[in-house]
Amino acid sequence: MSWLHYRELDRLLIQLRQLYSSAEVSNELRGWSWSGDLLSPPMENVYLGVSELANRYCPTYRDIYLRRVAGVQAPITFKTVRGWVYHALSSRCSSLIKSKLYLHGLIRGVELIKILLEEESNLIDSIIEEYNVKRYLDSSKVEVLRRNMRLLFEYFIVQTAARLDSVICEVKYAKLESIIGKVVPQVAEKLVDGRLIGLSRELRIDIMLDNRVIIDIKTGDVRDFHKYALAGYALAVESDLEIPVDYGLITYLSIVNNHVKIYNKMYFIGDELRREFIEIRDEAFNILNSGEDPGKPSSCPEYCIYYSICRGE
Ligand code: SF4
Q: pTM for the complete prediction?
């Protein structure tokens, strides 16, 4: 998305490249080595999502057992719905901005803002409708979500407009196609087939930058296990497209006191992270293979999506 702060991304990338300048990813841990001992999936014709593996709330993997063996779906909460609509908004904004720039040409940032603001209500309403938000949340929660979506949308378009002005200002000959490429250069919602390594057929990577950095957007609290999603997506891209992916970014989006907050954490997707993700994948497959309830850990985090089911509250 055009609201990403490129200078900050560049700075993070430079730091990581310096830090890991001598580190190389082993070929056997690249996704294209999917038929090797390390990466080949333990079960045939069973595929797991990157998020369900990476979101390791549960040390005993009871979440995998509940969802995949017992057929118990996690309750849909405000946080779940918030994640859906924020992701949809960020991806739709990207397409909307591109379409408006193609339609109106190289306009000024302020004009772009005016044009996009006219679309704001329709866009938000259509996302709320598409995701059936009113079915899951009461009207006061829907209004909270709607207000936050407005704040996010307005933040996105102001950042984009500023970037549009600065890109046009810096180039000598402004050509529409290349300017749009600089303002909205990434592939939003990159579709990847992860089946060669036991992952789902339609994995959606939130953003893939031109320089092969993948970005996963999170809308909840910062958790250390989020980094595993980057390893899963990197392996999937490498197995499906044979493109090496060495760096990934987790972008945390939130609204605090009516202000958008963005916090970025960048990772080198090296051997260690890849091995840890594959261990998680294999352990999840063990649960499926045995079909037995692995039981609960001595304590459960209250933020686990299955907390109300396992802990009976
Ligand atoms: S509530 Fe506890 S046992 Fe249930 S899935 Fe979450 S962490 Fe595991």
A: 0.90
